[in-house]
Design goal:
single chain, 330 residues, alpha+beta, Nuclear Transport Factor 2, Chain: A, 2 domains, 4-stranded antiparallel β-sheet, two-stranded antiparallel ribbon, elongated
């Protein structure tokens, strides 16, 4: 996400850096190295590495849609993005403290993007800062005179609101970037990375597209919650809750009768002293009211422990996602 906010297009895999960590007996891999924020006027920007189903498109929606590939829950992914944003939005502070001139700061400013520039209002509401803002707005609305409710706040100059007002004005110039002496301190761990000198690219005329449907992103979170609740019920040996995760038209494996399948599952679950079902490398795809989920399942019961690749097909029924088909292997 730092690359999205800072327009770093040098995020390839050919450069590596190491940090000396006094807490460790040696060196560790640096999370950032050879950082190159590139000033640009284009509203649509592309880092070197792909992050989601829309490839290299630097938007919050694209990044969130790929959270499962990093084994992150939607809630954890939103928290990490918010954590990075809360630091990046103050990007000018370390520059000024390091003695970078006002001219250089103005030249580099177009590289840094506001949260509003790379996300929709609906997506921002998923972030912790968006939740906090919504709470403040509800509280303020409750205390506001009725005649003033519904009118725009004088501080909001962007449609749909934002998690924080824009802290900079973007000025574009054709001069090179900052000298190598300038430092960035934007990661949550406040690690320092050197900015190298490079010419600014020509402005692009690309326009930002609509991005993936926010309803699809929210649906991915709902599907993940349903799958993990199914695994949790299985681990807790809670047979009624486990069976309730399956749709009424669920098709048991090998064409088995549904009643016989349920009786078999009940017997296999209740005769175990302890069960643990782990889910890793979860990948979710949604089309309309149907979802396909693949993941690595780690099953432990008494002395048995096995890993398998599991696939679940789910259907949205009312406000729930229920399992219609289940298969292992492949």
């Amino acid at each position: 996400m730092f690359n999205h906010f800072a327009s770093n297009d040098s995020d390839h895999l050919h450069d590596h850096g190491f940090l000396r960590d006094p807490r460790l007996p040696g060196w560790r891999l640096s999370p950032l190295y050879d950082v190159l924020p590139r000033p640009c006027l284009a509203t649509e920007r592309y880092p070197h590495l792909g992050v989601g189903p829309q490839g290299r498109l630097a938007t919050l929606e694209n990044a969130l849609a790929g959270h499962a590939m990093l084994s992150l829950s939607m809630a954890r992914a939103c928290a990490l993005i918010d954590e990075v944003w809360q630091v990046v939005r103050r990007w000018k502070v370390p520059f000024e403290r390091s003695g970078v001139s006002d001219g250089d700061i103005a030249r580099i400013a177009p590289a840094f993007r506001h949260l509003d520039d790379i996300s929709t209002a609906a997506t921002r509401k998923l972030l912790p800062c968006g939740v906090l803002r919504a709470r403040r707005e509800r509280f303020a609305a409750a205390r506001m005179p009725a005649r003033l409710r519904g009118q725009p706040h004088r501080g909001d100059n962007r449609q749909g609101g934002t998690c924080m007002h824009r802290p900079w004005i973007g000025l574009f110039g054709g001069a090179p970037l900052l000298s190598a002496a300038a430092l960035l301190c934007f990661t949550p761990a406040m690690l320092r990375a050197q900015v190298v000198t490079a010419p600014a690219p020509a402005p692009s005329g690309a326009l930002m597209g609509q991005g993936p449907d926010i309803a699809g992103i929210a649906g991915i979170a709902e599907v993940e919650t349903a799958v993990r609740a199914w695994a949790a019920a299985w681990s807790a040996r809670d047979v009624p809750r486990y069976l309730a995760a399956y749709a009424s038209d669920f098709t048991p494996p090998r064409g088995q009768d549904r009643a016989l399948w349920e009786a078999e599952r009940r017997a296999r679950i209740t005769d175990k002293a302890a069960i643990s079902v782990g889910i890793d490398s979860l990948v979710i795809s949604i089309r309309g009211t149907s979802a396909n989920v693949t993941f690595q399942q780690t099953y432990s019961a008494d002395r048995l422990r096995e890993k398998s690749r599991k696939t679940l097909e789910l259907q949205r029924v009312g406000n729930r996602w229920l399992i219609r088909r289940e298969s292992a292997g492949g």
